[in-house]
TrEMBL record:
Binding site for S-adenosyl-L-methionine: G71, F76, A122, E123, R135
UniProtKB keywords: Cytoplasm, Methyltransferase, rRNA processing, S-adenosyl-L-methionine, Transferase
Protein name from the UniProt record: Ribosomal RNA small subunit methyltransferase G
Stored SUPFAM superfamilies: S-adenosyl-L-methionine-dependent methyltransferases (SSF53335)
Gene Ontology molecular function: rRNA (guanine-N7-)-methyltransferase activity
Keyword rRNA processing among record annotations: yes
Protein species of origin: Phocaeicola coprocola
PANTHER family linked: S-ADENOSYL-L-METHIONINE-DEPENDENT METHYLTRANSFERASES SUPERFAMILY PROTEIN
Entry's localization field: Cytoplasm
Record has RNA-binding as a keyword: no
Function: Specifically methylates the N7 position of a guanine in 16S rRNA.
Family: Belongs to the methyltransferase superfamily. RNA methyltransferase RsmG family.
HAMAP family: 16SrRNA_methyltr_G (MF_00074)
Length: 208
């Protein structure tokens, strides 16, 4: 939890309590339904919560922004972002029902009012959003094909509506075929821990 305060020192008491509650909740739920590698649970705050919040080092969502987390699993990056941006709404989608259940239970347990969840393939989701966020789900080109139908034309933020993904390692092969405007932010410029050495936030505009 200290690592979250190190990089996000201005959290409200509510946000501190919500982030603080995640460790016991994920430890408990993960023992029943695997959403995080079991040996990685001790790294929950660094590898999962802070990594998710890396998106906030690229964009500060304006109040009222609508965001879908495609392939949220147990709620990453959607739940940490929903805590950090309580005035934006987050719709967490996953094709595996029991993972959606974990995300739903945890969002409810910490009293998040700005989160909805849905068990479906993102291909079936018809709602419109300003941004889609995603971590470890599928290549950029595949994500773009699925979400084109979901990106609203109304703009409210510092960057045009689009896709904001957490990616690791070698990206050139993934970014090269993408014809849209793309911006890559290195998380090692913000977070000094070795885990972030190769981690990136990739933003792609979606014009439709
Ligand atoms: C490796 S997990 C990552 C989960 C989470 N984003 C995280 O970083 O912990 C990938 C998730 O994407 C989901 N997924 C894959 N294709 C999907 C699709 N077309 N629609 C919805 N969810 C999908 C899978 O069910 C799985 O839970």
């Amino acid at each position: 939890m200290d690592i979250i305060l190190k990089y996000f020192p201005d959290l409200t008491e509510t946000q501190k309590e919500q982030f603080g509650a995640l460790y016991d909740l994920y430890t408990d739920w993960n023992s029943k339904i695997n959403v995080i590698s079991r040996k990685d649970i001790t790294n929950l705050y660094e590898h999962h919560v802070l990594h998710s919040l890396g998106i906030a080092k690229f964009i500060q969502f304006k109040p009222g922004t609508r965001i879908m987390d495609l392939g949220t699993g147990g709620g990453f990056p959607g739940i940490p972002l929903a805590i950090l941006f309580p005035d934006s709404t987050f719709h967490l989608v996953d094709s595996i029902g029991k993972k959606v259940r974990v995300a739903t239970e945890i969002a409810n347990a910490i009293g998040l009012k700005n989160v909805t969840t849905r068990h479906c393939r993102a291909e079936e989701e018809k709602q419109m959003f300003d941004f889609v966020v995603s971590r470890a789900v599928m290549p950029l080109t595949d994500l773009l094909k699925i979400i084109r139908k979901n990106i609203s034309k109304e703009q409210h933020n510092a960057f045009p509506n689009g896709l904001v993904c957490l990616k690791g390692g070698e990206l050139e092969k993934e970014v090269f075929p993408v014809k849209h405007q793309t911006m890559v932010t290195e998380l090692k410029d913000f977070f000094s821990e070795e885990f972030f050495e190769t981690k990136k936030v990739v933003y792609v505009t979606v014009n439709n």
